[in-house]
Design goal:
Layout: H1 9-13, H2 31-37, H3 74-81, H4 90-102, H5 109-121, H6 126-143, H7 147-156, H8 160-174, H9 182-194, H10 223-234, H11 249-262, H12 267-276, H13 281-311, H14 313-336, H15 338-351, H16 365-380, H17 387-394, H18 397-412, H19 416-427, H20 437-455, H21 477-486, H22 504-507, E1 518-527, E2 531-536, E3 539-560, E4 563-582, E5 587-590, E6 602-607, E7 630-638, E8 646-649, E9 652-653
Parallel strand pairs: 5-7
Antiparallel strand pairs: 1-2, 1-6, 2-5, 3-4, 6-7, 7-8, 8-9
Length: 656
């Protein structure tokens, strides 16, 4: 019978409660920490110098109460048989020296096991009791375990062979499948790290994990994944020291988003997760330790940055207010749009377990009809004036989810023109990638930093200080499927501008190029079964064009490896006027994309290369009138010839 059989399950399932702390010593592996835990002996007396951190249980030297069933080791029996065993100190001398050597490898499972054995081999030795109390105090300080939990953590490590057997059982059970996606493998490895498969949280490697992998608008993440992620995000130490490096430039850019997760760590959810996963004692105690360790780091940083924010309101906005407001805003968006979002997000969940050749089974024609209507209805309610505003709306939290479903539907129904424009002109040209609460928090932090830098150029935080650990949006599997199938069904844009009746000189006009493509003022719209024929007026009018310059306002930050690159918003001013005198030739567009257009509107459009009609890639032309009408696709549609107010973009219409 191993010691695991008698371990009280309730105690190990009780999650850690960690108070705000400010450590008074180095953490674990530095020379300073080792000298505190294993000081040089004076007059053959060992006096460890480890004190309880604020908010931690204070561990007193005492006879261990976790040794039931322990069989004293042969070396301990041999020591007691010696004549010098009458000296209370001597029998434990060699063992304490051994522990000091074992500690050279850090606070590992093996070191804690050696400590547990030493405690139970010499339970009545006063010096050993002090040494074990110092080890327990160090562990309590780091992990936030209470005294009872810390002693139970030693108890399960008392028999190292049994500990290793449970480790093997747990880690084999939770290992990711060879056929799992890379994202699922990373999440599985994070859970393994949090539950001891790489040893204690002190010795484990930080997981390669981005918040994009668990940034789900619908639910909180696994507490185990969150704890592993926070260790990855926030555990930065000073050089040659175990103290947190509060001035690390990565920490000050990671903390705003990761700090929001620290404030959302939930011990009750951890308890429930431990039970639902049916973790054995090995995994259970490591889960508690990892959770407490991550929470302790987060709360130390919270304390530090709170003090900084009290002295400077800019830091408060950047570090706390902006991300918190974003988390709350996302929650409201989800609750307000739950009926729309849940079905389309469920498509992504199903796609994760669906082979590409069966992706078309995820939707039927009735569902696609609903998804198209929902997207058009959603966009129709939005008030926009410019193409950039339109793209932001089309790719916002609700818009992006519906867009992904629409892209899947167009790909399944082989509407290659629509697929191409939805993916390349809407998805890929979004000014910003919107996502879950962490991504939205990061965007809010960018905005706050932009505001600060516009007034304080010497503010010490810069865009290049950000790292790819926080933020990001996981690629939609629905869109990935569409990209893959459209790659062999691409539709070309005609470069023979005479098809549209516009001269090469006009094409170079900055006003025409505001929304790329040909332009004309609509004379008439004739709707057919699947298409609409557009004719244009002969128009001579004066258009303004703009001159744009880059601002210092951050639009987005992208990463190449660990290097950050900021993209900045543009500011435009009137640059002059041009006289436009054209009459575009008639075009045929898909019926759905003509929904909001009428005579008098200004339209920019692409003329599609007619050679693709015979290849059946321009599907809406199958029943269209013959030439000279040309296949086209609308880009910007404006209420006025000056293009001051946008009516629609890429076949979708706003301001209804």
């Amino acid at each position: 019978m191993g010691p695991f059989k008698t371990l009280p399950a309730l105690a190990l399932c009780t999650a850690v409660s960690v108070s705000l702390v400010q450590p008074s010593t180095a953490l674990a592996n530095s020379a300073e920490a080792k000298n505190a835990l294993f000081p040089d002996r004076t007059d053959n007396v060992v006096v460890p110098q480890v004190k309880a951190w604020p908010g931690r249980d204070s561990i007193k030297a005492s006879k261990p109460d976790f040794c039931q069933g322990h069989q004293k080791s042969d070396d301990a029996i041999e020591y007691e048989s010696k004549t010098w065993a009458q000296d209370a100190y001597s029998p434990a001398t060699a063992r304490i020296s051994f522990l000091r050597s074992s500690y050279d490898h850090g606070l590992t499972d093996k070191f804690l096991s050696d400590t547990a054995k030493a405690a139970c081999d010499f339970p009545d030795n006063a010096y050993m009791q002090k040494q074990v109390a110092a080890v327990l105090q160090t562990w309590v300080n780091l992990t936030g375990l209470n005294e009872k939990q810390a002693k139970e953590a030693l108890k399960i490590r008392l028999n190292f062979e049994t500990l290793e057997a449970q480790k093997t059982e747990h880690c084999e059970k939770t290992a990711p499948s060879e056929e799992a996606t890379e994202e699922d493998k990373q999440l599985a490895r994070a859970i393994q790290m949090a539950t001891g498969c790489e040893g204690t949280v002190i010795e484990a490697n930080k997981p390669t994990l981005s918040s994009a992998l668990f940034d789900d608008i619908r639910q909180e993440p696994s507490e185990l994944v969150r704890a592993a992620y926070l260790v990855r995000c926030l555990d930065e130490r000073k050089e040659n020291s175990d103290d947190l490096d509060f001035d690390n430039h990565f920490l000050i850019t990671r903390y705003p988003v990761c700090g929001a997760d620290v404030r959302r760590m939930n011990a009750s959810r951890l308890d429930a997760e431990i039970k639902s996963r049916k973790l054995n004692d090995f995994a259970r105690v490591h889960a508690l330790e990892t959770f407490g360790y991550a929470k302790s780091i987060g709360e130390q940083l919270t304390q530090h940055f709170t003090k900084k924010s009290q002295k400077d309101a800019a830091y408060k906005r950047f570090l706390f207010d902006a991300p918190e407001e974003a988390f709350k805003r996302v929650e409201k968006i989800y609750q307000d749009n739950k009926k729309i979002l849940d079905p389309v997000l469920a498509l992504e969940d199903k796609a994760a377990n669906t082979p590409q050749k069966r992706m078309s089974s995820l939707v039927n024609s009735a569902q696609c009809k609903d998804y198209r209507k929902q997207y058009r209805d959603y966009l129709g309610k939005q008030k926009v004036n410019t193409v950039k505003e339109a793209l932001n709306t089309m790719n916002d939290i609700v818009g992006a989810a519906l867009l992904n479903a629409n892209i899947l539907c167009e790909a399944v129904e082989q509407k290659w023109v629509a697929v191409q424009y939805l993916v390349e002109e809407i998805k890929d040209k979004a000014p910003r990638e919107h996502g879950g609460p962490r991504q939205e928090a990061l965007l809010a932090v960018f905005d706050a930093l932009s505001d600060i830098l516009s007034e304080r150029e010497r503010f010490p935080v810069k865009p290049e200080d950000f790292s790819p650990v926080v933020g990001g949006v996981k690629e939609s599997l629905l869109v990935k499927f569409a990209r893959d199938v459209k790659s062999s069904n691409q539709v070309g844009i005609s470069d023979r501008w005479e098809y549209a009746g516009v001269s090469a000189k006009d094409i170079q006009n900055p006003a025409v190029k505001e929304v790329q493509g040909i332009q004309g003022v609509i004379a008439n719209v004739t709707r057919h079964a699947d298409t609409a024929t557009i004719t244009f007026q002969r128009v001579k009018h004066v258009e303004e064009f703009s001159i744009c310059t880059q601002t210092n306002r951050i639009d987005r930050i992208t990463f190449s490896g660990n290097s950050a690159q900021a993209s900045y918003a543009m500011s435009c001013r009137p640059g002059g006027t041009e006289t436009i005198d054209t009459q575009a030739k008639p075009i045929i567009i898909p019926l759905a994309s003509a929904e909001g257009i009428k005579a008098g509107m200004m339209m920019n459009f692409d003329v599609l290369d007619e050679t693709f009609i015979s290849m059946n890639r321009i599907e809406f032309m199958k029943k269209a009138p013959p030439a000279p009408h040309r296949a086209a696709f609308p880009k910007g549609v404006f209420f006025d010839t000056q293009k001051k107010k946008l009516a629609g973009y890429l076949g979708f219409y706003f301001n209804k």
